[in-house]
Specification:
The chain is built from five helices and eight strands. The protein has 175 residues and is an alpha+beta fold.
Length: 175
């Protein structure tokens, strides 16, 4: 499989826009609420810290068999950034494996935005020929578990760093 690159993806009310360093200033505001870090750890990044992180992400993985795909979520009405989605795709396995994640700013939660974004991301990955998609969700993060389920993933008994592994069921991977 050839390396993948993020491209614009339409998902309901959202446009998944490939991440650029220029998004850092606006995204620092979107991600500024300390509550967002309850399950993922850490603290909100300052704009300069987020800019440095985005520079590393945009540069890509140092592993030639791994693609870092990152998008910001642009709500189309009103036009503003509201979160991020990402996929880390490993092409070294017998078939590519994508691990996905999503974050939506506190002000835009409980509106179905994360669900639209995750569905759009999983759909795009499947269009790229990726059949194995997984996410890791904190067992107490019920909202994120609901997003994973809405994107077609199901929980497994596997735990990684205390989080539940969710996977795309075999029946859904054949499409």
């Amino acid at each position: 499989m050839n390396p993948l690159a993020a491209c614009p993806v339409t998902a309901g009310r959202l446009l998944l826009v490939p991440l650029t360093v220029a998004h850092a200033a606006e995204m620092a505001g979107v991600l500024a609420d300390p509550e967002l870090h309850t399950f993922i750890g850490g603290t909100p990044a300052r704009p300069d810290e987020l800019r440095s992180r985005y520079e590393r992400l945009v540069a890509g993985s140092p592993d030639p068999d791994v693609d870092w795909l990152n998008w910001v979520l642009r709500l189309t009405g009103p036009d503003r950034l509201v979160g991020t989605v990402q996929a880390t795709v490993s092409r070294a396995a017998p078939e590519p494996v994508a691990e996905v994640a999503w974050v939506v700013g506190t002000a835009w939660q409980r509106q179905g935005i994360a669900t639209e974004a995750a569905r759009g991301l999983v759909g795009w990955l499947r269009q790229q020929g990726i059949r194995t998609v997984m996410a890791h969700v904190h067992p107490d993060h019920h909202a994120s578990a609901s997003v994973a389920a809405a994107a077609g993933l199901v929980p497994t008994d596997h735990r990684q760093d205390g989080e539940v592994r969710w996977v795309l069921p075999v029946d859904d991977r054949s499409a």
